[in-house]
Amino acid sequence: MNVNPAPLALSEPAPRSLAGAQGVLVGLSKAELAEVMTALGEKPFRAKQVWHWIYHRGATSFGEMTDLGKELRAKLENNYTVGRPAIAREQTSTDRTRKWLMAFADGQKAETVFIPEEDRGAVCISSQVGCTLTCRFCHTGTQRLVRNLTAGEIVGQFMVARDSYGEWPTPTDERRMLSNIVMMGMGEPLYNFENVAKALKIIMADDGIALGKRRITLSTSGVVPEIRRCGAELGVNLAISLHAPDDDTRTAIMPINKKYPLKELMAACREYPGLNNARRITFEYVMLKGINDTLQHARALVKLVAGIPAKFNLIPFNPWPGSAYECSDEATVNAFSDALYSAGYTATVRTPRGRDILAACGQLRTDSERLSAKEQRLRDEQERKIAEDAWQEKEAAL
Ligand code: SAH
Ligand code: SF4
Question: What is the DSSP secondary structure assignment for residue 118, as one 8-state letter?
Fold first, then answer.
């Protein structure tokens, strides 16, 4: 495994100004934006122009919107902000993965990660500050839920990532560096369905950011009723954090399984619209040593998903300070993957990215209490040290 706790490229840009008490435009639907224009005494079509500036051109201020009259720009400036989250911290891993700690108008924070490939890449977006669920292997799960993120805060994370790579205006051909979105950051997106759906509709709108539904994957721990809504209203790709093939094992590591056991979860998966061989559900499976990683587990998985167009994504467990599990060893992961392949399923092993900056799956966490910049730095430094030590130990053992 390629884990190299090399020195960090850490930079701390000055936070941009926060939104204050003004209204925020990012996150409004087209109809709501038209209402804003009407309230300002303008014709609703002005909303189209503003939308284009914000989501196609990436404008961060009204001053840039040169085809709006001076008077309208002044009115907008006095009453609204475009409404990007501020960057409280930006870190870039030795493997080029980039992580931002975003600060929202009320001071709450969440993390966003960009995972670059050769000529494309996925932005991993958070849906909540913290999480109500307590999956035992997940760092975010140790943090209390503070609040849901708004639609604007969800869209804003993607926009800040695009700012960082200068990917504005929205590329009109297929080539984009920030080519995909995975709703796999902090929080359970289906426990914040309204805001997530509103945000994704804004992101998908073809006269703005224009990212198609095939390029968006929503990951859920299995909130069954909302899986149905997600399929009907959004039709994005679905990933299920499965992690175990039987109720006993799954309930022990994912308490949500008590509420929505596997039988119900699999029924919702079977009904997910638009599935076929080219469009499958991704079953995520974190490899936990001695817990869920035997060949019997693999065989039970194959039975469980029978009939569902499925692929597996095996995630080596990423440790975090205080975590109680170990990652299965490489031979076990490979044998598990082989067993799924020989049953006819794709079972890729996810390469951990950004472990040196705690940006890999399940490592995201922000402090629910607010700390001073100095306290935060100390805390980050301690956590980084603990994570590095854990990885050095693991590397030595492999
Ligand atoms: N709440 C949603 C979205 C988070 S996605 C969900 O649970 O699906 C993050 C993915 O990383 C999920 O599949 C999650 O189960 C997995 N994960 C959590 N902690 C992990 C860890 N320590 N190592 C590897 N994967 C982890
Ligand atoms: Fe929440 Fe997902 Fe982490 Fe579970 S794995 S605690 S649902 S963020």
Answer: S
